[in-house]
Amino acid sequence: MNEEHGLRRGLTNYGDRDFAAYLRRSFAHSMGLSREMLEKPIIGIAMTPSGFNNCHRMMPDLVEAVSRGVLAAGALPRPFPTTSLGEVFLSPTSMVYRNLMSMDTEEMVRAQPMDAVVLIGGCDKTVPAQLMGAASADVPSIQLVTGPMSTGRHRGERLGACTDCRRFWSRYRAGEIDKDEIDRVEVRLASTAGTCAVMGTASTMAIIAEVLGMSLPGTAAIPAVAAERLEQPDQAFRNHYREIRRKCVARSYGGFGIHQRGVASGCRSRPARHPDQ
User: Are 116 and 210 within one domain?
Assistant: First the structure.
C-alpha cells in the first residue's frame, strides 16, 4: 500500500516516519487488529451518538451496518465520535454550535489516518456541520442520515413532530384541551427514534445532501426504524466503495451549488467556502 494511504496516512511527527508507523501498528494491534487488517484501506465512520440527541438513537445500528459494508468491500472500518447536536436539548440554540461541530468533524477527519469517511448525522444542524467539515478536510466522503421518525396517533389523528407541537400547545394555552390531554399528546408526538417526521430542517438537509450527490439516491427519506435504513449503507458501500474512495471529495461548491452527478457515478467538486460565507 502507498505510504500516503491506510495506517501510514498522516503519521504522527516523531522525526522518524518509519518509527511512527511502527509505533502506530503496535498500538493498533492492541485493539485486536491483525497485520493483514492493518494493510487495508481505512474508512473512518464519523458517528454522533448522544444521550442528548433522540434523533440519533439508532446510531449504533447504523455504525454496525456501515462497518459490515466496509469490511465486505475489503477495507477496515474505524468509527470515531464527534460533537452531536440535539436540537431541543441545546441552549440557547443549536445554531450556536453548528460551526463548532463542523470544526470538530474537519479536524478529526484530517488528523486521523483514513482514506475516506462516512458521515452519519440527522438532527437539524448535524448534516450541514458534517458536510462543511468534510468540505474543508478534503477527504473522500459520503453522507448517511439517520432517517425520519414514524408518526404518532392521537384520537384517530396522525401526529407529526413538530408540525403538531405548537398546534396542540396553542390549544392547551387557549383552554381548548385540558392537562390530561396535553400530557397524552406529549408522549405521542415523538414516538420512535429518528428526526422530525415533517418537512422541517432535518428532512430538508437530508434531501439537500442527496441532491448535492453526497448521499446515495433515494436514501434521504427512509424511516429511521425501517430495515431498509440498515440494509442501505451495507449494500451501498459494497457497490460504490471504489467511487467513494476515488472521486467523492466534498469540497465546497462555491456556496454548496448543486452536484451534477451523485455518489453512485462518482462525485468531485472543487471550490472552498462554507455555505454561510
Answer: yes
List pLDDT tens digits, range 35-62.
Answer: 999 999 999 999 999 999 999 999 999 9
- CA–CA gap between residue 84 and residue 193 (Å, rounded): 15
Decide: 142 and 133 in contact? Cβ < 8 Å. Answer: no
Residues 103, 137, 208, CA angle at the centre, nearest 5°? 80
Q: Are residues 163 and 33 in the same domain?
A: no
Q: Is it the case that residue 11 has pLDDT exceeding 90? A: yes
**Distance, CA of 117 to CA of 47 (rounded, Å):** 10
Q: What pTM, to 2 d.p., does this model score? A: 0.86
Are 84 and 58 in a shared domain?
yes
Residue 226 region, left (φ>0) first, then alpha (ψ -120 to 50), else beta?
beta
- What is the rounded CA–CA span in Å between residue 276 and residue 256? 9
Picking from 55, 205, 233, the residue whose alpha carbon sits closest to that of residue 142 is: 233
* Pair 70, 114: CB distance under 8 Å: no
pLDDT on residue 257:
33
Residues 177 and 115 in one domain: no
Q: Are residues 126 and 220 in the same domain?
A: yes
For 127, the domain range is: 43-146+195-277
